[in-house]
Amino acid sequence: MLESKFKGTLQPAVRRTDRLRLRIPAEGDIDFLTRLFSRPELVAHRPVPRPDTPEESAARLARDIAHWKDHGFGRWAVEADGTLIGFGGVTVSKQFDGLNLSYHLQPESWGHGYATELVRESLTFAVDDLQTDRVIGLVRSANAASKRILEKCGFIFEREVMLHGAPTNMYATGSFRT
How many folded domains does the chain comprise? Predict the structure, then answer.
C-alpha cells in the first residue's frame, strides 16, 4: 500500500524549478491560504462552489502539514519571485490507486505557465524520488484549464468517478518507466 511504502521518506525542505521555489507549508502560510480559498474563481469548480471559511482553511493547512510529517512529502507551498502564489504537489490518495496530484494557484498567477511547471516537477518528484508508477489528477468537467494542463503533462483520461458527491474526471499517468 502507498502509505506504508512512503512512510518516513523525508524529502528535502526546498525544491526548485526554473521559476518556482517549492517548500514545505508552514503555519505562517495561514493568512495567504485563507485569502486564496476565499476567492470565488478558485473554488468555482468544486461540488459546492463556495469559499472556505477560515476554519476550513486552517484544517486544510493542518492536513498538508500533517501529510508531510506522516509521509515525508506532500503538497508544497509554491513561490514565484519570492512571493507565495499557491500550493500543490502529490499526496497519498485514500480513495484511489496512485498518488494524487493537486494544485491551487492564486488567480493572478494563472496563464503564466506556473501550473504546468509545478505539475511537471511534481511528476518528476513522484517518479524519481518516490519511485511511483502512477499519479492521478481529479478534475471537474467544467475546469477546461486544468484538463489542458494535465493532458499537456501526459495525463490521460481514465474514467469518471464520484468525488464529494459530484462527477469528476480521473486522469492518470501510465507507467513512466520504459
Answer: 1
